[in-house]
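Working notes for the structural subgroup meeting. M.R. asked for a predicted model of this chain before we commit to crystallization trials. I am recording the input and output together here so anyone reviewing the notebook later can reproduce the run.

Input as submitted:
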Amino acid sequence: MPQHDHHDPDAGFADELGSALRTTGESFALDGRPELVTGGLARGRRRLLRRRLAVTGGALALAAVGIGGVYAGTAVTPGGPAEKAGVAAAPTTSGSPTAAPTPESSGEPASESLKPGMAEIPLSRIADVLKANTPAGDWRFDDLDGTGQGISGVYDDGDGEAAVGVFLSRAGREPDAGVDMVTCPDPVYVPHDDCDTGRLPDGSRWMVFQGYEYPDKREETKNWRAVLLTEDGFLIDASEYNAAAEKGAAVSRENPPFTPAQLKALVTADAWRPLLQQIPPLPTAPAQPGKLGRPGKVRQAPPHVVGNGVTDTLRSLMPKGLEVVGEGGEGEFGYVVVDDGKGRSLVQINVQYGMDDVAGDLFGSGDVTTLPDGRRVKLIQQPGEKGGAGVVWWTADTLTKDGFRVVVGAFNTGAQHEAATRAEPALTLEQLKAIALDPKWAALPAK
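Returned structure, recorded in token form:
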């Protein structure tokens, strides 16, 4: 059985995810990602996650990091109860350090007591701001004696208990770090009832999302979420549920307690500003040790495809008779939804450089052939993984000797979390193989 890269609530990841992972000192599972990386990432063997989690358009990138981590324990701290084994390792960060304010440039006092990237904000202060900027009700917190960057609690306004949490962090070092966090998700991958975005007069960006804990809606737990990306690069991430816990608790009310307008008011409250200023600058990635403990060179990150060329090329390679009724993606990931009159079929692709380090994981077993030019090809037929009834997933995975990977998959449904619309995907395995081996992929712009 092939091993696949999972996103346990789902959007791959970006500098903003790496930022939050380092900020919390944690690693969390991420589900629902449409990227087809099937080997090293889930076990921490991949060096970095790519530009964005295309499944969500990045918007829910921290669903399991910020809020999920907070819910695992009131204080998000290294080695805390949220820490799990065998999940995605925190990626390294590339980009200019000038994007993240230093203590000198931001007016923050330097403190030797602060761990790199970790704030020692009293949890009671976070709770005070949370309570002061939400409607009156009864709150229950497990522990407010420690310090950290986020808390969770149970709120009750008389209409049913609801889990609520808030997490504070820096967005990252890239100039566009955090933008994906305030971008509405793609409904092909993340079903939701509503999502709004906008800007404040000071340039800060916000998103309010009304969705579900499980993309396939196998449980009725709703997840409503608001995120603010400040103009100077901080994130305020608040989430609420219509149950007393994120998972494993019965639904207690029809909707989460705070309206979308109230959620927006919560994350945009001025009272967060003094707490954000206590978050220290993000650490830079340390050099990796060489043999016998001697300093070694950090392996340069491989190039990555940029622009919308992947989606455009995928669309151009669709066989005749298939109408493209939907498309999306960016950078190395793209997808189209096609229909031949017999039902919709989702086709998605990743184009990745520098994958030679996980070649053994990807092509060590299964139906693998080696072409005369050294490219390896693996064909896979398996059930879908996102809960849609009767869904099957066919994949053609290819890798050159120098680590250039093209992996394309097709489903017998227009969205993985929805029931099958046809018996088989609209493309055969041989057609998927031909698309993956097309020379157009190597010609796409990369940097």
